[in-house]
What we know:
By secondary structure, this protein is α/β, with parallel strands linked by helices. It is about 10% helix and about 25% strand. The protein has a domain at about 25-225: Leucine-rich repeat, LRR (right-handed beta-alpha superhelix) (Alpha-Beta Horseshoe). The protein has a 24-stranded mixed β-sheet that branches. A two-stranded antiparallel ribbon has the order 1-6. The chain has a two-stranded antiparallel ribbon with strand order 2-3. It is globular, with a radius of gyration of 29 Å.
Amino acid sequence: MDYVKLLFFMLFPLLCQLAFCSSLSHLCPKDQALALLQFKHMFTINYDASDHCLDKKGQSIQSYPKTLSWNKSTDCCSWDGVYCDETTGNVIELNLTCSKLQGKFHSNSSLFQLSNLKWLDLSENDFSGSLISPKFGELSSLKHLDLSYSGFTGLIPAEISRLSKLHVLSIESSLLRFEPHNFELLLENLTQLRELYFYGVNTSSTIPLNFSSYLTTLYLRNTQLYGTLPEGIFHLSNLESLTLLEIPQLTVRFPTTKWNSSASLMELVLSGVNATGRIPESFGHLTSLRNLTIASCNLSGSIPKPLWNLTNIELLNLGHNHLEGPISDFFRFGKLWGLSLANNNFDGQLEFLSFNNFDGQLEFLHFSSNSVTGPIPSNVSGLQNLQSLRLSSNHLNGTIPSWIFSLPSLTHLNLSDNHFSGNTQEFKSQTLFSVSLKQNQLQGPIPNDDGVPQGLGQGEEGDSSMISWQAVLMGYGCGLVIGLSIIYIMLSTQYPTWFSRMDDSSLVYI
């Protein structure tokens, strides 16, 4: 017993110290709480703002007024969106994304008194045309800064380039611009940067030669950059995602040798840039690639054989180019859930569809505007999750097989401008959104209300959400020969699964 008492007295001071530290660990300094409350009172709550926002991965997040929970009777470390250092109590993170804030963001905002901030997210609010204050550059501990879609306008101050510890920088707004050379200055100074997202920002610049060697994600869209993309970007050894969209004056030349990013790159998304030429064989080394989108980039020629080695590809979009070759080759990719080859010069027939076991993973298949010939096979299985099938403007013939009418998850079907004949059938899908069968030689009556999937065709006259079958009369023969233009419009706020799984960059030109 004496040993127990002795041990207790020895440990008692330590236990007291731990209890004391624990009681203080979440106490917010009064001056920081006051700064946050002053910041709160500068804005009103816009209850008409959307209840949902999208994060960087396109996932929906709830929008609600976080600052309503802020009041002086509680510790600021317990307020919504506020996070404190567990030891000092200093406010180190402020996440106010989608907080329905509205009002002017003043250049001397009390927010700048929070000198220990490491994370600041003000995205998806309405700061009513405010300028970005140069004082953001004084938050020298920041590692994460997101000012996207928040109503800021004007020049991005050069002082932002002082934030040398930044790991993540996101500025997405068509109302913002850099002064000449400030974009290069920014990237020159942000040597610790991991993720960079610029959308709509006028950079007034050639694309800089040097990027942080730590960079994992580069997202540039509609940024008015010009010149040639430095080959060094493809050799960043930590690069996981490269997205370049709607930058027509930007020239991209792919390395012809193995890229240093070959092992790490999982997402390569280019659309609306000038990548004239062929896909080089060096693509065969990108063994970690899951999303390959090179759309509307003036590519030509055939697909190099090493590309078939990319066994991890899940989404492939090569639409709106001048590529050629047999379309059947693309089903060597065993993990595909989405494939778009629309508006190219691919040829061949679709018999390979009956030889593949899709295991229900394929969600969209787009081959429109190519030179595909022959019938659609009648014995195709494993497409129970197919939601979008677009084969328009080819040279397909024969009857439309019954399995297409029986697809349970189908939302979009376009078989227009081919040479199909025979009778139409009732669709089994309960989720149909649009169907187009026009410019074929199909026979049979327009399906009556019983042939319209349940939940469709219930609108009243004058209701813009009404679902209807529309037909274009083409002539008479044995029975009624018609070209069907069938359009379903479904009163729904939900996107098809294949649509919601694709981020904004992957949806371009599919």
